[in-house]
Amino acid sequence: MPKLSIRRRLIASVFATQLILTVALVALATYFTRGQLRAAFDAGLHGRAMSVAALIRYSEEGNHELIFDRELSPPSLDRRHPDFYQIVDESGRVIGASSNWPGNLPGPSKPGRQYWDVTVDGVHYRTVRLDHLPVLDREGPDTKSNATITVIYAAPTDEFREDLWHAAILTLAGSLLLLAMATLVVAWAIRQGLSPLKTLAVSAGKVSASDWNLNLPEDATATEELAPLTGAMETMLATLYRAFSSQQEFLANAAHELKTPVAILKSTLQSMVQVPRTADEYRARMEIALDDVARIEKLIHSMLRLARAEQSAAGHHRQDLVPVDLAASCEQSADRLGAVADAGGVRIEVLSENHPTIKADPEDLELIWNNLLENAIRYSPKSSRVLVTISEQDHNAQVTVQDWGTGIAESELTHIFDRFHRADASRTRETGGYGLGLAITKAMVNAYGGTIVVDSRVGEGTVMTVRLPFKS
Amino acid sequence: MRILIIEDERRLADNIGRSMREGAGYAVDLAFDGEEGLYMAESNPYDLVLLDLMLPRIDGMTVLQRMRTAGITTPVLVLTARDEKESIVAVLNSGADDYVTKPFDLGELVARSKALIRRGKGHGAPVLKVKDLEINTADRTVRRNGKLIVLSGMEYRVLEYLAHRSGAIISKTELLEHLYDFNWERFSNVIEVYISGLRRKLDDRNGDLIQTSRGQGYMLRN
Fold first, then answer.
1. CA angle B210-B212-B216, nearest 5°?
2. What pLDDT is recorded for position A429?
3. Closest residue of B to A285, CA-based?
4. What are the Cα distances from residue A330, in Å, to A305, A326, A364, A388, B198?
């Protein structure tokens, strides 16, 4: 199917409009010309009728008799179809007629008309009837007589019709020529008018993953009709660029973070083959290598989890959500981390005023609480406690995780939810962390339309507040 | 030779240390954070420091700058996960001698370490020549008059150190400090054993090549 062309459609519509106008104009001109030509023809016809009437004389005998000498009548212009006429007096007596006078000439379609058209033997004639013409003979004996005559004169209209046809053809040809020229001009103007679209397309085509700049050509920005398009393009590019840079940043971070565990595994394997070893030594080194691989695996798992959480935060709808009792969910996580807490000499307390329920994936919530609790435990001193409180507000369920540990420096506070951010490299690594825990937590909370806020003072402790809306 | 590895990834530090001991015969000390690393670098005479940049407590860049401010001229090889040009330039401008990016090849790391130590001692070529003695630090072989001489690991290390500083008197303590890690005091009696072993194998029974300065130390004469 051929593509719709704005240019072709515009040209076609302009052409159609002009064609209609042209036809109307030609018709009007032809009608007007016909009127003019007929008026001239009628005047000529009238003149010829009068000249025939002028040939009427009184007879020499002085008996008031009117006579007509056919021999004196003027020759017809059209030899093939000569004019014909009849002259009658007041009483209706035929004074004279042309030799070719047809016996029964039809009268005008409306009685009383002076001019009318007739067809005799297939030839079109125009007829004039002149009544009450005075006899012009002033030389004969009856000059005092007031006798009048009636002349009916007909002449063929072939010539008139031909003239009209010529005039129509000429007007039509001229108009069509003008139409063709106008169409060309319009086509050129439209092509010129649409050229900003072309330059815009060219500059849009130059946008790529390495060059995000949409260099809008001047004629495109100066065109009023293109403003919505260029505006939309710029907005779209900005949105795409943000998504793309975020992905690239994630990829760069991920690659960077993978370097260290890969370097460890590589060094383990290389040191294994550097010198010959005993089977037991090989076995021991192999186990270390396996351990290294497990760390890489764990990191990759965390990255995927983060990517997925960020994707659902970006508006992916999920169907697998079930009502979850937040208090029960928190208790469960607290139980699970009980052993870790005990090892650090930390006690976890869960306080629930009521039992808010939200629709969620229980695994997601567990991961959120686990991450928050692990952090709290990690930074808590021995024989302190971590307090979890669950409460209900207007439209939100609220969970706070509070510790009385080392706290977070003010300069760190803005970064703790960043991907791959580590407040203290050695400490998080000892527990296998890669600075993704809080980033994942935040992405997941956001995925449920919730918010997470941190409040912390160095030496006093940290409070993490998670708010999850009942309706997401 | 004795080197210091400052790297917070214990596993990686262990692996590098093992490689340096086995592949180059160096004595290796490990530090797992910047503070400890800086303290060790300031209090021991190392022949090379391997320094990670991402370190807890004091970051690697600061460790490097403080070492240089303190006047420590020991060659420093930086281990970095970053390979952006700017950070490499900054590292080298702060006084590092070389860098490798993670994940690196241990063989390459050992070779670069050897080259840095060699240049740190003022030698360009990997083969050290003292009179008719040739010590190839690349494959750790020793020849005298073109004849291959088989040495034990510690004998080689003593000879290599003496050869790097040939013409200078090296105290027993200095030898110990550079050939052993921080436990060197335990080995204080063994240097004589290695020296006599070396003299025997190098056919230097009169001590013309390896001279003993009573109460001062040893010197490889050139």
1. 130
2. 43
3. B15
4. 20, 6, 12, 8, 70
